[in-house]
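#struct-pred
JK: can someone run the complex with MRU? inputs below
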Amino acid sequence: MTMSTPYPLKIRAVWYDKESNTVCWVNTLKLPFKEEVYCSNNPERVAKAIIEMEIRGAPAIGVAAALAVGSYAVEVSSLPLGDFAMSVGKAIDTLWRTRPTAHNLFYALNRLRMILEENVGKNTSPSEIAKMILDEALKVMWEDIESNIRIGEYGAELIPDGATILTHCNAGALATSAFGTAEAVMRVAWYKGKKIKVIATETRPMLQGARLTVWELWKEGIPVTLITDNMAGYVIRRGLVDAVIVGADRVTREGYVVNKIGTYMIALAAKRNNIPFYVAAPTSTIDLSSSINDVVIEERNPREVKYVLDKLITVEEVNALNYAFDITDPDLVTAIITEKGIVYPPFEENLKKIMKDRG
Ligand SMILES: CSC[C@@H](O)[C@@H](O)C(=O)COP(=O)(O)O
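RT: done, structure tokens with the ligand placed:
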């Protein structure tokens, strides 16, 4: 399955290699210093890559997990049906437990689990089921790329020529399969000739902004300025920012946006200073079945806070908190840019409308 795209896919974060029947990914932990690629169809290895953040960003996690299950299903398709079903079910469970917050992971794995269960019930042969699962995983990947491009096209309309956009974390190609969400908006605006500039926050503790967003925009030729996270409020207050655009890991039915830790403070500053705060997210990130009270905010190893690029920066024994995500209230969000269109408040009502044909 291939797809021609109206814009170049200059960076691929996650893809399928047919020849070796593996999922391949760029190890984002090594960027921007080294472009290291790994390929595997071992669910445990891919799960480790997600947990340790070689692969990160909500859509990229979903696509990688789907392709891991798809390629693994093909790998074990010579097993008898019962053993095949058990092995693939176990692979889905392993990937399910990797990171708890991004909805895309559960969305993608649920699609594959449904195919497995339906067809095991019908006594379909393992090789046919494996093919269906792999095809579905590839569909998840292409849908992701397609959504990113649509998000870019819808979002670019909101961006005035010459605008300075502030973004947080990395919602670029490296957080998806190929094109990005918040960065898709910037890319398309840029390709359409809008002379935008971007301010990227460094995004402690894992530095996705400094390491990944800056690298991606640099490669694209889009002017980018790096700031520390704690500069965002002042930079906005000084009038240096025309709009904020971020991605999301999960959008709840009420329109709460769960995204990288630090997003909430930026949204507050944007509201206070009357600049728009946009969220770019595919519908695979929107979970109408979750209310804000159900959301699990991942807490990661405190070591990530105490060390920067493997260098200890504090007293080794100190306690550190490491919430990976925060929650932005719906009233701080100007609009959510999806592949189906731009959603404005009231979010609870309008998200429902846009999600109607998503099922
Ligand atoms: C298009 S990616 C949107 C989000 O996944 C992104 O902003 C983010 O918070 C990523 O967090 P990470 O911990 O790097 O996986």
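RT: quick notes.
The radius of gyration is 20 Å.
Residues 56-59, 102, 169, 171, 175-176, 181, 208, 246-249, 259-260, 324 surround MRU (CB under 6 Å).
JK: thanks, will look after standup
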